[in-house]
Design a protein that fits this description.
6 helices
Length: about 160
């Protein structure tokens, strides 16, 4: 997860993700997270668009080992996390389950970045756009998002069919 400064769009509340298989996509994030990431990067010396976004205090880029260490520390300080088997994957699963239950299968697929068409034929037709993902994020966080669909599920400026 080598996020770069150019991968953060604070104004639109987006983070560009580069995932396995060469997939690149924009993921809505809360305005609070976007602002905090920008401040973090600035304080720790990110200047160029290609500079790493997440950095240690000395300005060097975080590595995958840092995430492993964070989870080790979380487990040590919060015994219930280890007892319940809570991991980054568990958080992802729980989030996607919530999105699916409240916003439907297509939005959950888009939120997860699942663009493959394997599985039932209907997965080819069940789609959600960035606005639907932003609406789910806004509902989950209780924070407005600039790309979120208004109530009723229709993007601004588009009339109902």
């Amino acid at each position: 997860m080598r996020l770069r400064l150019q991968d953060l769009d604070v104004e639109r509340g987006l983070l560009q993700l580069r995932e396995k298989g060469g997939t690149v996509r924009w993921q809505p994030i809360s305005a609070q997270l976007a602002t905090s990431l920008a401040q973090h990067a600035a304080v720790r010396g990110a200047v160029l668009p290609t500079d790493p976004l997440l950095r240690y205090r000395n300005g060097t880029a975080l590595t995958g080992r840092r995430y492993d260490e964070l989870w080790r520390r979380i487990d040590a300080h919060l015994p219930w996390v280890a007892a319940q088997g809570i991991t980054a994957h568990w958080l992802r699963h729980t989030t996607l389950t919530w999105v699916e239950r409240h916003f439907g299968y297509g939005t959950a697929r888009a939120y997860a970045g699942h663009t493959d068409t394997t599985g039932p034929a209907t997965t080819t037709y069940i789609r959600a756009d960035l606005r639907a993902v932003a609406a789910a994020l806004a509902a989950m966080t209780g924070q407005p998002h600039p790309l979120a669909q208004p109530a009723g599920g229709h993007p601004r400026g588009l009339a109902k069919p």
